[in-house]
Amino acid sequence: MKLLLDTHAFVWATTQPERLSAQALDAITDRTNVVMASAICAYELALKRPRDPELQRMPPDLDEAVTGQDFLWLSVTAHHAITAGRLPRLHGDPFDRILAAQAMIEQAAIVTCDPRLAAFGGVIVW
After folding, report:
1. From the CA atom positions of the chain, what is the Rg in Å?
2. What are the distances in angstroms from CA 70 to CA 35, 49, 63, 93?
3. N or C end of the chain: smaller count of CB under 10 Å?
4. How far apart are CA 125 and CA 60, in angstroms?
5. Where residue 31 sits, what CATH number does that domain have?
6. Can you give the pTM of this predicted structure?
7. How is 78-100 classified by DSSP, letter by letter?
8. CB atoms < 10 A from the CB of 68, how many?
9. Domain residue limits at 107
10. Nearest one of 2, 59, 63, 67 to 30, comparing CA atoms
11. Does the pLDDT value for residue 107 go beyond 90?
12. Are the C-beta atoms of 122 and 100 separated by less than 8 Å?
């Protein structure tokens, strides 16, 4: 299964895995699954880290955080961005809209505890 981590799931998997649900942790650690962190998460972390103590616990080098856990980076393509822009206005967070579009296009489940992402109809793992 392909999994796309919401930003909080990426942070928790890296710094506080005990905050993940049992189902999310099992899915992330199952070596038969492909676990991806979106480039949009890197942008969100870089933007919010200076004012968020929890995010400041993330390794300074996000590439190390991704590769150290055998995750893959998922780049944001024009197709992802256009699809996100065309999604119904069910959720206003631009980071989450990109994640929802990426999950749809990449046929991945989103690892998130945010129930608002389910509004887009994708598979949620939590």
Report:
1. 14
2. 8, 23, 11, 28
3. N
4. 27
5. 3.40.50.1010
6. 0.91
7. HHHHHHHHHS-TT---HHHHHHH
8. 11
9. 2-125
10. 2
11. yes
12. yes
With 0-12 / 13-18 / 19 or more C-beta atoms within 10 angstroms meaning exposed / middle / buried, residue 108 is: buried
Q: What pLDDT sits at residue 94?
A: 87
What letter does residue 77 receive in the DSSP assignment? P
Q: In what order do the strands lie in the sheet with 72-74?
A: 72-74, 34-38, 2-5, 109-111, 124-125
Which two tokens mark 61?
């080098």
How many residues are given for the chain? 126
The two tokens of residue 92 are 């206003």
Q: What are phi and psi of 3, to 5 degrees?
A: -125, 135
Give the span between the Cα atoms of 44 and 121, in whole angstroms: 23
Q: Is 34 helix (H, G, I), strand (E, B) or coil?
A: strand
Number of independent structural domains in the chain: 1
DSSP string spanning 51-73? G-TTGGGS-S-HHHHHHTTT-EE
| pLDDT tens, position by position, 21-76 | 999 999 999 999 999 999 999 999 999 999 999 898 899 899 999 999 999 999 99
